[in-house]
Amino acid sequence: MPPELIAQVPAPQRDQSRLMVLERSSGKLSHRKFPHLLEYLRPGDVLVLNNSKVIPARLHGINSASGGEVEVLLLEENGLNDWWAMVCPGKRARVRSRIIFDPARPRSIQAVVIEQNSEGHRRLHFSGTANIFEELDALGEVPLPPYIQRNPSADLSQDLARYQTVYAEASGSVAAPTAGLHFTKELLEKIRGQGVQICSVTLHVGAGTFAPVKARQASEHAMHEERFAVSEETAAIIRSAKQDQRRVIAVGTTTTRVLESIAAQHEGQIVPGAGRTRLFIYPPYQFRIVDTLLTNFHLPHSTLLMLVCAFAAPGETRGRDLMLSGYAEAVRERYRFFSYGDAMLIL
Question: Is the full-model pTM beyond 0.85?
Fold first, then answer.
């Protein structure tokens, strides 16, 4: 991966990214612009979005004993003022360490490390606030992934707006469902105008989405867990589409994981409800719900890349070669990669 192809900023306008179109049956690749997505949609299609909202999950504090700087990335809320987090550097966050945030306040917000798990994550108990979640807009900053570089003094106001989909509703993600970043409200209205139904699921994206697969065998990889929810309305729309043999188009790998997780648990059916998923999709995998996938270009060695390889040839293993050939073409054509990068439509 040429480093200069890793997008550091979003496109000037959300819907002006490029769009690579892969036709699975023939292997044909086409190079388009994102608004050309309209040409590939049909009346009766169902477009499924992930409406999870990214929270300002990155906090900066100091170790109360040493005065050393500490960076905290909140991962998941266990209960009121009780969170699992990634803390860096770890040597400043041993059990019983106290981290102070915003020390200029009359009563500073603090966190005590009460536990460390096998992944090196810290469990933090916050004090000095009724609910740390309600302080994040003022205290936290947008949790950009590690491959997007910003100076410590950089103005993150553009990232605050652009590292978020225009339809985000349910707060809880610490990474954006990036395939949805290309949509504008105007483009979504045009899609509805073509007779396409649009509905949403929720999957709160965790930092584990960036974790590389290090196991020698895919089956040995410990998949990260993520929370999801599907409404009765969405479940009914998708059930109807499958019964009528209309296409279900997933916007993003996160949406795909939700739909395929529920189908795996309920004999191929979509039912409403909430839960957690550790579903790891890799070749060969037979998809039960998703017919078309809109996605971004993903990190090497990632579970997301393995998912799209599986989708490129469902039930087979040749999707890996097909997808890596497509990625090689994207590099030659100077596509922009990863969260702020360009998109791919797999038909």
Answer: yes
